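INPUT
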Amino acid sequence: MIALAPPPHAPPSDAVALAPVLRRRRSAVLPGFWPSAAVTSLVVTTMVILPLTVLVFRAAALGPAGFVAAAWTARARAAYGVSLSAAVIAAVASSFLGLVVAWVLARIEFPGRRLLDALVDVPLALPTAVAGLVYSALYVKNGWLGQWLVPVGIHGAYSFLGIVLVLVFVSLPFAVRVVQPVIESLDRDTEEAARILGATRWQTFFRVVLPALAPAVVTGFALSLARALGEYGSVVFISGNMPFRTEIAPVLIVARLEEFAYAEATAIAVVLLALSVTLLVVINVLQQRLAASGH
Amino acid sequence: MSRPASPITATTRSGNVALVAAAWGIVGVLVVVPLASVFLEAFSGGFGAWWATLAHDADTRHAIWLSLTVAPVAVAFNTVFGIAAAWLVARFRFPGRSLLVALFDLPFSVSPVVAGLALVLIFGRQGLLGPTLAALGWKVIFSWPGLVLATTFVTLPLVVREVLPVMESIGPEEEMAAVSLGANGWQVFTRVTLPNIRWALLHGVVLANARALGEFGAVSVVSGHIAGVTDTMPLRVEKLFQEYRQPASMAVASVLAGLALVTLVAKYVIERRVEAEARERQAARAADGTAAEGAGQR
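OUTPUT
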């Protein structure tokens, strides 16, 4: 049992007298500020701030000319291009496919709905290396899907398309899970009103439903893009990693590290980091808007 | 779902069937077929062959063992951090609070490869602390501590993200009541806070563990790929794949996929508990509210 004797540092023990004080500065009486602040700041400083600061300082030490020379080689530019274009295409595809899946999960009752809902989470739990390995095995010439697709000229393995495929896989849950609760919370009366006033089904969807979903879809797109830009594990298995053609930026960083070309690896990493941080800021703003709009 | 579909907005039956078929098609091609093929390919030679490829390869055995020792340590770090950080942010107001919350999420946005490189720049031979560590005879990069650090970094947001919203929604009233009755900090934590957040905490731990077991990019950079020493399960999958040992690679992958399925089942069970408790809290609060209103009217 909790001891009833007031501790030595106790504030006025009269609960009635305490109440207004609590309401004004409700945290002042709870213990554990300093210990939790110490643990949190220690971990955040050593695990997040220090490594990323060291990275940026190492890159800065190259000097402007040195940095550009290291980060802007022809091969690096090609890698940014592959990374960005594959991530954007994958995020667009994920947003669209995710919208369909989210709509079905939120609006339609059908046998197996719970199973479908659970399967959407698989990419979050399945190690990316497994995803990459399996996708490449499926889409090669004698793979399950490749035996039908390769003869018609669709190369899903060791190609740009392969990169997009695995990026759609890893980013799909983000696209679905951001949109799904918003569809569930949509007010159907508005849709009803639109239909009563003579709008067709498609007009209702594009003029009434889609504008309401737009913030969530855009947030899902940004989250998918952030996830896709940094992805390494699955891509390295399926892309073939051909410089200038299917080499993404993270793969180039690893290649440079293996050659002990630390300066170049660091410079490319800082470019990638800047992209991710920018996206993170955008996502935060989008999510605040989403929260402000009532979801 | 909470109300019957109105006849006006209800889509046609055939429209619904087409949409459900499309959703199954999307999830089927992207998720179900790959998942099924891992197990079918891994067990294509029968259970005996599968077992032999795993158990008779010393490097694979070591990789499984290494993954099972690195992940819990990283998850333990994250649990302590997650609880402390959630307590700090949910219960206190201080300058820089929202910046701190944004920093929690940063590891999600940073490419794992970039994270691994940053660790190499600190702890590697030519890194910031490289000479110091060499003088002490400690090895971080290409060694077990580096694997733990890299894994901790990529899983850092997972526990705090699950615990923080629950702690915020519960509110500090029960804890303040305990303090005013004379409980000390440890008593408040073990008897009030922990029972309240336990399911959310477990949810975070399960997610962090799954991510830790499967982490590839960051671990790949710091491990040095030494077979039988610093190869974790996902790295072993890659190495076997590069050595054109597809069946062995698939066998290790099937172990990881099996662990992922276990994780999803656990996640599903825990989520239902979290939802049930949230509903109970809301009901209790609503009951309190009506009682207070009633008292006010009287």
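end of record. Chain A has one domain: 52-292.
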